[in-house]
Design a protein that fits this description.
Strand order of the largest sheet: 1-7-4-2
Helix content: 40-55%
Largest sheet: 4 strands, mixed
Number of strands: 11
Distance between the termini: 52 Å
CATH architecture: Orthogonal Bundle
Shape: globular
Bound molecules: protoporphyrin IX containing FE
CATH topology: Cytochrome p450
Radius of gyration: 21 Å
Strand content: 5-15%
CATH superfamily: Cytochrome P450
Length: 412
Amino acid sequence: MFITDADQVQKIMSSYNFITKDPDLYKFLEPFDGKGLITSSGSKWRNDRRLISPTFSKKNILQYFNPVLQETKILINILSEHVDKPTFNIEPFVHRCAADFVNKTFLGVNTKAQFGEMDYFLKLLHRMYTVVHARIVKIWLQNDFLFQLSPYWKEHEEGKKVILGFMEKVIETNNQDHQTKPFQPIIQQLMNMKNEETGFCTHQDLKDHLVTLYTASEDTVTLIVSFTLVLLGMHPHIQETVSKEIYDIIGDKHDIHESNIDKLEYLDMVIKDVLRLFPIASFLVRKSEKEVTMFDYLIPERCSIIISIYNIHRDKRYWEKPLEFYPEHFLPEAVRKRHPYAFIPFSAGPRGCIGKPYAYMALKIVLVTILKNFIIESDGTLEDLKLKTDISIRPKNECFPIRLKHRNSIAK
Ligand code: HEM
């Protein structure tokens, strides 16, 4: 079943009959994610989700504000080299920065991805999104024997070795690291939950959850920052309105502070319209746990339901300018009038994204800090951005071209 109607999505997503992901598709993530939150189901998912959720509450993730900001300031220094230089692809720079702050805040390790230390790892990780997606969409690769004969197999095995090996090393290092940090990384919080009674969190649980959280965060945040910068470069008047808001709320002498986050309302609208145009997961697949009648159809047990977020986000029934970058879609009165399930970039309901508060915080820190320092320029129009999708949605040529100029003083 293919769903593109917000009413139907609401019924599916808020029902416990549809919280099982389609195992025939999600099983290809399991060699990496094991039984982490994205791939697990049933009581394992329910228990783990209940235990992990408080770790990602808006209040708890604020302790990561400064570590994310510190890494972003390193990014600014690196980007300064590109001021007044020709067009370049911003994505690898944001990706390395995101890797460093995710490593710090989730895994409790200090890395220097921004200085090239993790380039092989990040390239391999990126490649795995393509390999896993290929297995999902190319039916012949779903057969283990044929997959092992394909050129993807060697990469898949190398990816497993390097990514899982990295997580093992991180867990080992964390067990030996008794220094007190000004914040408690996610790994530490998960380890503190170790409990014989609940059975959580074994070594395997820890590894599965860390790989899942890692892969769910670094690529998503990188892509949304990169898409936003390209769109702001294409729409100078929107960029100036954001810059003015930043100046009014933060001024040009200080860094962004955690108390500013909720006040940056126009920036929030900008990010949301980027999430609308480029929903990281362009579609979701759920499986019915039992036979039900819904919207006048009999949905049999184990029926696959495909929810096309991409189509809903560009449907003229819900959006005034569906194919344009138009942050005003998120003015409070427009939001009030719209169906609540017409905008679901983080999915929704019990299986909605656990990392939403972390994502919004990181997106705002990185975008504000870049926009306080630079004016972004990019050529072309939104229509020129041809997309493809692997595990995430991204430009077909994987390039986010921009130019930078110094912003000496933010728009006053
Ligand atoms: C802009 C950033 C992000 C977007 C657009 C996004 C989007 C999504 C979507 C659409 C889903 C549902 C996937 C599905 O049903 O298969 C999801 C689930 C999930 N996301 Fe995110 N995500 C983002 C950032 C993050 C971050 C930063 C984390 C890490 C904390 C994270 C962790 C997860 C996890 C663990 C799940 C599975 C939840 C469950 O099934 O219980 N995400 N995300």
